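Q: Given only this backbone (144 positions), what sequence would you predict?
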């Protein structure tokens, strides 16, 4: 192999190494973003039970169910849905990416939400608390 061919082979090899390094850096950045999403700041949520419930939702922790009555009412975009069936599929797969607004004494949460196969979009979660302090209703839907 002459020196010209060697230089070309060396240049191609080095450029492949640079591409591989960039891919590793991109993967590290993506992993860092995922960690940030899991440790998102929930300090805007002022109702302690709502905050704890959202923390459980964020991590896919089954303690999520303990914040609710045995058979809470639930709507998704105004349509009645079964709470337990809904969260069997959603818990651990769906989560808030940001909390943008909190209203109604900390019981109404608005933010960007990753909804599994349906994509990412702005949503609201409206928690309704009974006299014992448990949530007996949850209304969720897309924010307009």
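A: Predicted residues:
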């Amino acid at each position: 192999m002459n020196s010209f061919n060697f230089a070309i082979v060396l240049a191609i090899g080095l450029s492949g190494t640079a591409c591989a390094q960039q891919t590793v850096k991109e993967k590290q950045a993506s992993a860092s973003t995922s960690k940030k999403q899991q440790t998102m700041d929930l300090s805007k949520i002022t109702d302690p039970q709502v905050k704890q419930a959202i923390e459980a939702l964020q991590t896919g922790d089954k303690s999520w169910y303990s914040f609710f009555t045995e058979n809470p009412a639930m709507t998704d975009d105004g349509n009645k849905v079964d709470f337990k069936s809904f969260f069997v599929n959603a818990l651990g797969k769906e989560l808030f990416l940001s909390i943008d607004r909190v209203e109604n004494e900390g019981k109404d949460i608005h933010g960007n939400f990753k909804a599994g196969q349906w994509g990412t979009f702005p949503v609201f979660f409206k928690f309704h608390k009974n006299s014992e302090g448990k949530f007996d209703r949850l209304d969720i839907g897309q924010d307009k």
